[in-house]
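Q: Hi! First time doing this. I have a protein sequence and I read that you can turn it into a structure. Is that right? Here it is:
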Amino acid sequence: MDKNFEQTAMRVSFISILVNIALSVFKLFAGIIAHSSAMLSDAVHSASDVFSTIVVMIGVKLSAKDSDEKHPYGHERLECVAASILATVLALTGFGIGYSAVMQIIQKSYSDTVPGTLALIAAFVSILAKEAMYHYTRYHARKIDSAALMADAWHHRSDALSSIGALIGIAAARAGLPILDPLAGLLICLFIEKAAFDIYKDAMDKMIDEACDADTEAEIRSCVLKQEGVLGIDMLQTRLFGNKIYVDLEIRADGTSSLTEAHEVAERVHNTIETTFPKVKHIMVHVNPTEP
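A: Yes, that's right. Below is the predicted 3D structure, encoded as structure tokens:
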């Protein structure tokens, strides 16, 4: 599971870097040829996403390290740290877009230069490419439950939104309505800030031992009660540790059985849960004696 997690995240991240580099070069070329400042800014945004993806790769690589003497519970939370960094970068990106839009409106500093058709084409291509990368990255982030990869997916979405702003600005400038450019920037800023908040909240939840969702706990409870020798459940607690789950469980078993038999019941529950629920990294099972 961990090996597949790292391989998938690295493959998706490598593709992200290639796409961002290609788009940055194309947007830069289009911005210069078509005399579009909006497209030049969009090219810088795409180039900055390369840094974000590198942070993802570092976070995933570190979080996939095996447990050691100083970190017996593993390093999964390092991926949450990477996600928090990316959420901060995403929030700053949105703030930058919003600040620039507000200043343009206040100062009425709209561009008088009419950009060429190539800038429109570049913006449209960027929207399609980045939206496709958003869905591709989000699919794999959900598949391996990676907070950092999900944050990178939203960076793709923010770039697509930025390109929509550039498209509106370029089209507005060509139509003689340049004020639509900063107004679109303000709307895009709000979308980006909302995404940054959601990513940061998810990362924090996984770092402060939040319980897993009620449906998962119900499935674990049902699985435990089906095991031979389990007469009931006295306690079930779960906590998220990065993208993994730790479980503390107290079950009731026949008080007249031997220690060996009680141990076999606990081992049966332990092994079944870890096999049935791949995200459960470890489960601690305590046996309470009861009348059969």
